[in-house]
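B., you asked whether I could sanity-check this one before it goes into the benchmark set. Here's the sequence:
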Amino acid sequence: MNAATVLMLVILILGIVGRSNVVAAAAAIMLLIHFTNLQRLFPIIERRGLEMGLLFLMLSVLVPFAAGRVPVKEIFKCFISIPGLIAIVSGAVATYMNGKGLDMLQHAPGLMIGLVIGGIIGIVFFGGIPVGPLMAGGIAAILMHFYQMFR
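And here's what the prediction gave me:
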């Protein structure tokens, strides 16, 4: 049993113990791919997995709009109410941070390990939800920027 298999088993167990079906399922799928000799899928998943995940996340968010469950009046409230404007600004800031996270991960892919471990800790011990390493990368990029400014 190699180190990668052991690591996936540990992540699987942490996902089960932490009651995070997403983490447990992801680790189980990686183990399944590994044990069925389908490792040629790893580069495809690595290259396109983030896009596929974001696509399904956006699809799930857009369902209420597509199903007509969000009235047009409610949508326009976003532009004239303080909570709506705060939500718009928050969405813009989060998207900006996600972009910074992607840039950081492209230039320092080794940091992904820390983001994954931190994500697992957040899920298992704090009841967090693993929506992706981009936001964590964005937060890390901003914190590293401040660290570099003040060291």
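One thing to flag: Residues 11 and 73 are 45 Å apart (CA to CA). Otherwise nothing jumped out at me.
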